[in-house]
Amino acid sequence: MDAKIGDIRNEWKRIRTSSRFHNFMMFLIFVAIAAVFWFILALNDSVTETFQVRLNIQNVPDSVTFITDPPADLHVTLSDKGTNILRSGVVKHPTVNLNFRDYAHEGVFRLSAADMTAELKADLGVSQITAASIDSLRLYYTTQPGKRVPVMVQSDVTASSGNIISGAPVSLTRFVQVYSYRDEVDTVHRVLTQRLVKKDLSQTSEFDVKLKPIQGVKIVPSQVKVRVPVEPLVHKETYVEVDVENLPAGASLLLFPNRVPVSFYVPMSRFNNENVPMHVVVDYNDTHRTRGSRIPVRVRDHAPGLINVELKTDSVEYTLVRH
Q1: C-alpha separations of 179 from 142, 219, 282 in Å
Q2: CA 153 to CA 189: how far, in whole Å?
Q3: Tens digit of pLDDT for each residue in 224-246?
Q4: What are phi and psi of 123, to 5 degrees?
């Protein structure tokens, strides 16, 4: 192993002292010098480049709320010598800083095209602004406190088979603040969410939903989390007392039995609830329509949330008694 390392060192010394190696190194040095000169000459040429510039509004009082959100950045096309653009630091993290007090007046932060150009030149340190994605600014703001209003959820949601939407979707943020430049908030008494559309939900879920914008009004926050309650359906049976409809005066109808079994599906949270509002009836007039001693039984109505309500018997025996 030591012999091999010694051979490699001897070979490297031979190559390093050869004239061909010296010529190659001189070639590389001249290429590097030429590249430096070319780079310097290129930087002295006029170049046009577009940069993303961050927009920062400084010295904004805590009492100020912008109704129109300031843009986070803008795209600016600069034309100048390459050395000037490089020296200005634009290629790093360009930022234009605007003083709130210089341009704010009676609820409007206004920056003309000339003001915008002057601010860009001053902060970026370049001589010519060729173009900008935002050539002027007009932002509305208010110093008035916001108004607290409730959030109303708009939704179109369904559960998957074997489950049920067990309540109205609700916003976990019950109230939001609304602000306006003038008096628009006086007419705002609630804010609505964008319509939430979800199908075949199999479990309780939460979704981020944007609030529906209102012209001239700032809503804080601009989106809320909406919870959609979903429960599995479970099978249940119970006995319900039978009522008699259309019974004339001076008559009574004795039913055997007077309580009948009913089956249905109910959300799991209501399975142990013994109070199940349900109206099961027989119609006295059916005594004239049927033969024999049995009369049909029907479910007239029941509490919401009960699914596939079925009677376990379709009729009961009766005895007509006249007084």
Answers
A1: 7, 7, 60
A2: 14
A3: 999 999 999 999 998 999 999 98
A4: -80, -30
